[in-house]
């Protein structure tokens, strides 16, 4: 690759900005997960508790004091009360800021994946999911750390598209969701588009629920389980069944507590009592819905909790935060979900609806495939492509953007639907190339992989390739513009 310009397109910057606001590691510590960690540390409340204790002590001393010492104690008590009042005000301001930041973040995510038409919405959703995948490391020591930070946005996007699909498949039974959906449909038909009950009272709370689903892991009790008493354990190790159950319990309980106390309800701004009462009622209603989503995700059966549970299972494979990571195994997510259906863990209809959206190959996955000539005959080589489309007609045939042509990297690729027989992920395609000489296979590899060290460790017939380095170049990030699609 001779590309020389690093950087990010506007679309990539938007995704990176979203990810950093959800979970980052900076000196500002202003991301959602960093704010939660600070709240759970109890530092803010400890300062308030100490001031309240001091206030109580000074009041007791003042009650027992003689006239000579009262002035000094009264002054000290007044200062403590003023400081306490300021700390309580700051605590409330911080809480409101967390609430509004989270709401704004959820809105930003929905804007990122919402188009003017269903086709544009699918394209924007594919771009967002693919970009998150391509921004996530596929090799090295930081895979688990980065995936842990990226997975929240990924599963929230997936959950929104799953909700759409379940509504289309008439698999949503929850009356709250159906009522809001119908209210919005009626408002649209009447031309009333200033307020969408479905957007404001279902989609936004759903995104918030997905972002909060793992927030309890920031609590010191959860960190103790993950890191050990002295912080020496690898938090990304495979936990024992006991540790895992303890962690799930702490995470759920603290996520609920953070929702109700660390966030609480937003405050009304205005002078109308009627508007204030309605605002508080709706805020409470939405918080109850978020709480219900978090609770029902534990044992969703065929209910609304699957909007959290199934995307969570999917993202645990596609963006795993465990040390035993193998990029080539990401497409096994579909087999894992189907196995869960067989074992009775997941509802078959909901898994089927999800796979209608994703197919078997995750967005941003690096596909190696055998191209065909104009006569639809297989050529004597393989090329690189990246999965860039949702809703494939056949789940095992991904929609991809070609990245190489004639073994040369090409910025202006086309979209191609890769068949099973020509996708090197499958054995049937690999067998076609097994007849080829080792010299020819090495020649192909040498043209596609410039890094000699990497080349010596790769299979001569690779099942996939790692496109994250390719994506770091600015000119390679426009993978989702509309181009012609062919079948391969």
From TrEMBL:
Q: Which residues form a coiled coil?
A: 70-105
Keywords of this entry = Coiled coil
Task: Indicate what this protein is called per its UniProt record.
Answer: Uncharacterized protein
Q: What organism does this protein naturally occur in?
A: Rheinheimera riviphila
The uppermost taxa in this organism's lineage are:
Bacteria, Pseudomonadati, Pseudomonadota, Gammaproteobacteria, Chromatiales
């Amino acid at each position: 690759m001779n590309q020389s310009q690093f950087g990010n397109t506007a679309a990539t910057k938007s995704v990176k900005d979203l990810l950093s606001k959800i979970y980052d590691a900076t000196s500002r510590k202003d991301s959602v997960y960093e704010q939660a960690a600070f709240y759970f540390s109890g530092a803010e409340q400890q300062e308030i508790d100490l001031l309240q204790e001091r206030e109580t002590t000074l009041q007791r001393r003042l009650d027992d004091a003689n006239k000579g010492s009262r002035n000094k104690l009264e002054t000290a008590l007044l200062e403590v009360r003023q400081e306490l009042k300021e700390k309580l005000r700051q605590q409330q301001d911080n809480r409101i800021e967390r609430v509004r930041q989270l709401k704004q973040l959820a809105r930003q995510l929905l804007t990122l994946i919402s188009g003017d038409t269903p086709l544009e919405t699918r394209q924007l959703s594919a771009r967002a999911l693919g970009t998150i995948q391509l921004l996530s490391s596929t090799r090295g020591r930081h895979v688990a750390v980065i995936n842990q930070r990226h997975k929240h946005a990924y599963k929230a996007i997936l959950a929104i598209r799953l909700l759409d699909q379940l509504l289309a498949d008439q698999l949503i039974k929850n009356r709250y969701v159906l009522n809001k959906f119908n209210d919005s449909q009626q408002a649209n038909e009447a031309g009333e588009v200033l307020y969408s009950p479905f957007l404001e009272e279902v989609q936004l709370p759903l995104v918030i629920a997905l972002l909060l689903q793992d927030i309890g892991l920031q609590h010191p009790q959860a960190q103790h389980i993950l890191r050990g008493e002295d912080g020496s354990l690898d938090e990304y190790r495979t936990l024992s069944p006991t540790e895992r159950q303890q962690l799930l319990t702490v995470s759920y309980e603290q996520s609920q507590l953070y929702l109700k106390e660390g966030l609480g309800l937003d405050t009304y701004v205005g002078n109308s009592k009627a508007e204030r009462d309605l605002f508080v009622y709706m805020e409470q209603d939405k918080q109850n819905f978020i709480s219900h989503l978090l609770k029902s995700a534990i044992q969703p059966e065929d209910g609304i909790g699957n909007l959290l549970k199934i995307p969570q299972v999917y993202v645990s494979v596609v963006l795993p935060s465990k040390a035993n990571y193998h990029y080539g195994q990401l497409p096994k997510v579909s087999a894992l979900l189907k196995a869960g259906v067989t074992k009775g863990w997941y509802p078959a209809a909901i898994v089927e609806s999800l796979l209608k959206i994703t197919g078997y190959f995750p967005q941003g996955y690096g596909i190696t495939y055998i191209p065909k000539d104009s006569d639809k005959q297989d050529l004597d080589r393989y090329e690189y492509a990246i999965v860039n489309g949702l809703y494939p007609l056949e789940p095992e045939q991904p929609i991809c953007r070609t990245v190489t042509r004639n073994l040369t990297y090409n910025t202006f690729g086309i979209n191609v639907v890769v068949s099973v027989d020509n996708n090197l992920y499958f054995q049937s395609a690999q067998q076609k190339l097994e007849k080829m000489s080792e010299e020819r296979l090495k020649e192909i590899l040498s043209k596609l992989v410039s890094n000699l060290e990497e080349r010596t460790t790769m299979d001569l017939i690779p099942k996939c390739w790692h496109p994250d380095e390719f994506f770091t170049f600015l000119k390679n990030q426009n993978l989702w513009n509309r181009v012609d699609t062919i079948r391969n």
